[in-house]
Amino acid sequence: MKRTNQTALVAVTIAAGLMAGASSASSAAAQCGRASWYALHSRTASGERMNPSALTAAHRTLPFGTKLRVTNKNNGRSVVVRINDRGPFVKGRVLDLSRGAASQLGFIGSGHTAVCMARA
After folding, report:
1. What is the DSSP letter of 65?
2. Which helix (H) or strand (E) holds 25?
3. Which residues of 13-46 are buried (b: 16+ CB within 10 A; e: fewer)?
4. Ramachandran angles phi, psi of 17, nearest 5°
5. How many Cβ atoms are within 10 Å of 78's Cβ, its own excluded?
6. Residue 44 · residue 64 · CB < 8 Å
7. pLDDT per residue over 22-73, tens digit each?
8. pLDDT tens across 84-116, in order?
């Protein structure tokens, strides 16, 4: 009987851990914060060549290929981007967008803005 209770406890603990992991992954994809833009011509962390006019972005943890709808909180404009790089590496920023995405969101001049993002 004691062995059965231990097995059940382990199963519940594993399930709770998986659920916690799932909620943290979804919270990484549904959040608000500061975003900036960059326009390099080097390779991204995914191995593809950076295209400044493409609708792409860098995120610290989301898998490459993830599509996000990013909305500029200051003007309401939104765009769907694909994660293809890692970053941002500036404290307080949640996303680095390509120049093309920043242009569509309307914050090229300021360099950064407040955004909300969710999986598309």
Report:
1. T
2. helix 2-29
3. eeeeeeeeeeeeeeebbeeeeebbbbeeeeebeb
4. -65, -40
5. 18
6. no
7. 444 445 557 999 999 999 889 999 999 999 999 999 999 999 999 999 999 9
8. 999 999 999 999 999 999 999 999 999 999 999
Q: What is the spatial distance between Cα 55 and Cα 27, in angstroms, rounded to a whole number?
A: 22
Cα(93)–Cα(102) distance, integer angstroms: 14
pTM: 0.75
Neighbouring-strand partners of residue 29: none
Using only the alpha carbons of the chain, give its radius of gyration: 18
Pairing of the two strands 112-119 and 67-72: antiparallel
Residues 6 or more apart from 86 whose CB is under 8 A from it?
45, 58, 59, 60
